[in-house]
Write a structure and sequence with these properties.
single chain; three-stranded mixed beta sheet; globular
């Protein structure tokens, strides 16, 4: 299509999860509950780790950063989605669409890399416990978290710039509930083959590095655990890793399903459900997974509640 025949897009219309008003009202209540739980659980986790000195270790430093990431990650999508459930016109300005995509990409990358850093932390703690305080000093922990954010900011900037250089001549209606790369590539009237290569390459590098780090870390961890003579030691080592493995499996499984396919095989309805899971549900599940399966967190929570009751 000729450039001169292309109307300049000033905003997009998000079709959302459903066009039925009664369904939208039900979804609003459901996702308001999920988002509220996400905020309370993650902010509560951050506060708990800050207040309890027993949790001032590298493992919980990374967990508090994961919780902060989940708060930001969910907040890039959920407030707009909730507002749209109550709106007749689900419009999002062109610039705000780009901003939403950018920050969503940043925190998705950070979450992915933070899970890898947490796997490395468990590897050092279990396989090299004598070197743990040196290998995971506060300075190194801060550097690892900073590196995750730097990669997130740069990687997301590349994807956002590449996506919004495309032309959107045919329509401004996005069959999705937020501005994400695949639905915008499907909407574009330009050739998106370069964008797909960039998406697969850069997301592949981030996700690939994360998965390889997790697999290598847990390969060494499993080998070390199986060599332990104490059954109690094996049980304790497994229990410290179970929560993290659960979070990794859920996050990476959904991410791989979403992004590592050509746009020609992109099924809007199926992928909207997948997107709901990793943008809204996973940020709520992470603090619940880590708190319900972690004795230290449960102990700190009981202590905080009893202290509050006694002081009250």
């Amino acid at each position: 299509m000729a450039v001169e025949n292309c109307t300049v897009i000033t905003d997009f219309i998000l079709l959302g999860l459903s066009g039925r008003k009664d369904v939208q009202q039900g979804l609003f209540v459901l996702f308001l509950l999920v988002y509220s739980t996400t905020m309370i659980a993650n902010l509560g986790m951050i506060l708990l780790i800050k207040l309890d000195s027993r949790l001032h270790t590298p493992m919980y430093y990374f967990l508090s950063n994961l919780s902060l990431c989940d708060v930001c990650y969910s907040s890039t999508v959920s407030p707009k989605m909730l507002a749209d459930f109550l709106s007749e016109q689900k419009r999002i300005p062109y610039d705000l669409c780009a901003i939403q995509m950018y920050f969503f990409g940043v925190f998705a990358d950070v979450e992915c890399l933070m899970l890898a850093v947490m796997a490395y932390d468990r590897y050092v703690a279990i396989c090299n416990p004598l070197l743990y305080t040196i290998a995971m000093s506060r300075q190194i922990c801060i550097q690892l978290v900073s590196l995750a954010y730097i990669v997130g900011f740069v990687d997301s900037a590349i994807h956002t710039c590449c996506t919004f250089r495309l032309s959107f001549c045919n329509s401004n209606i996005i069959n999705h509930f937020f501005c994400d790369i695949p639905p915008l590539l499907a909407l574009s009237s330009s050739d998106t083959s370069i964008n797909e290569i960039v998406m697969f390459t850069f997301i592949g590098c981030v996700v690939g590095c994360s998965i390889i780090t997790v697999l290598l870390s847990y390969s060494y961890i499993l080998t070390t655990i199986l060599r332990m003579n104490s059954a109690e030691g094996r049980r304790k080592a497994f229990s410290t890793c179970a929560s993290h493995l659960t979070a990794v499996a859920i996050f990476h499984g959904t991410l791989l399903f979403m992004y590592f396919r050509p746009s020609s095989s992109y099924s809007m309805d199926t992928d909207k459900m997948s997107s709901v899971f990793y943008t809204v549900v996973i940020p709520m599940l992470n603090p619940l997974i880590y708190s319900l399966r972690n004795k230290d967190v449960k102990g700190a929570l009981k202590k905080a509640i009893s202290t509050k009751l006694c002081s009250g």
